[in-house]
Amino acid sequence: xxxxxxxxxxxxxxxxxxxxxxxxxxxxxxxxxxxxxxxxxxxxxxxxxxxxxxxxxxxxxxxxxxxxxxxxxxxxxxxxxxxxxxxxxxxxxxxxxxxxxxxxxxxxxxxxxxxxxxxxxxxxxxxxxxxxxxxxxxxxxxxxxxxxxxxxxxxxxxxxxxxxxxxxxxxxxxxxxxxxxxxxxxxxxxxxxxxxxxxxxxxxxxxxxxxxxxxxxxxxxxxxxxxxxxxxxxxxxxxxxxxxxxxxxxxxxxxxxxxxxxxxxxxxxxxxxxxxxxxxxxxxxxxxxxxxxxxxxxxxxxxxxxxxxxxxxxxxxxxxxxxxxxxxxxxxxxxxxxxxxxxxxxxxxxxxxxxxxxxxxxxxxxxxxxxxxxxxxxxxxxxxxxxxxxxxxxxxxxxxxxxxxxxxxxxxxxxxxxxxxxxxxxxxxxxxxxxxxxxxxxx
Length: 443
Known about the structure:
Helices cover 32% and strands 20% of the residues. By secondary structure, it is α/β, with parallel strands linked by helices. The chain folds into two domains: 3-16 and 27-153 and 374-388, Rossmann fold, CATH 3.40.50; 155-189 and 227-368 and 400-426, 2-Layer Sandwich (Dihydrodipicolinate Reductase, domain 2). Strand 14 (325-331) and strand 15 form a beta hairpin. Helix 5 (103-115) runs parallel beside helix 6 (130-143). The radius of gyration is 22 Å and the shape is globular. The relative contact order is 0.16.
């Protein structure tokens, strides 16, 4: 790498200047996209961008086998194992990047691309820690590039319509939200790292580690179970909350919580817990009342962790162990049971005619789009509205989600000062707000 040019480009952005995307798009122009992470979820993200009209010009993956399908699908795309080298060598030929790496690399790759004026589509959770989310939020405002977090259902009709109806008062003033998932479906609760093993052929382990401190390769990290290790993943909470907390956080305009506390089992210094119940407390937002949001994940005593709630007519609508994921909002005029994949939500505790009237009278005020890839590509080429899961929105949302992991790792209630980005009572939690990076991998 020509590190002088690399550092000069980074320095310009960090000095606070506006970074202007490299070109203006005409009627027949196509967005030139580089995929950082071509295997796993990267396959879906690269394919989604291509279907939305992008031209895939470069592919980067540290694992030859994982990237093979996309290499074959896009034979003209230049191949790399180090995204830093790719951006250095092809910077003038790339307009935008999809970032579909493990969580621990999201922020470093996205930050570098944005500082070079590249539009970014980054998988959920947007970052590995709270500080990184704040960093990317600020960087998005400074650079003006089109951004989108990959919580795909955010662009779908179920969530956008549900947000409109909740804000229209379909269940009145909401004071509680309960949200659950069957994840993890990978190992968690490990007490020690696996024994050293031979690195698989074709895997660049050092580049896979990226910004985290070096550790020896062991079985159980790649290609999927990294999610359960704190060094690389964010556990079941990070994997799913940016999907299924989305409707509640968006519709209720929750912002940052005032405090977070967690119950959990199987947590260790190395690994996320086998199960967790996380209680987020939000204060008044204007005239909106305080809200308690409770998150449930994992298997507790052999049963899927989740809420048991009684409707007003005494019928148990949500049972432990029933439903892989979902949410219920509790208002002073009823309850809304919601799944992000369906518009067939259930409203209980309110007169059916009143519900139908609100649904009929509530206009569609939120822009609709084909999918979140099209929303991003259209914004990047100047043919559509700003993405609704852009980093200015997704960054604060990710901050809120990942505060749950601070409460887990601190094993005590965390009172939170969002402005100062720190806990006012837990120095244990403050240790995990941000991370140290290996040389050559800093934000």
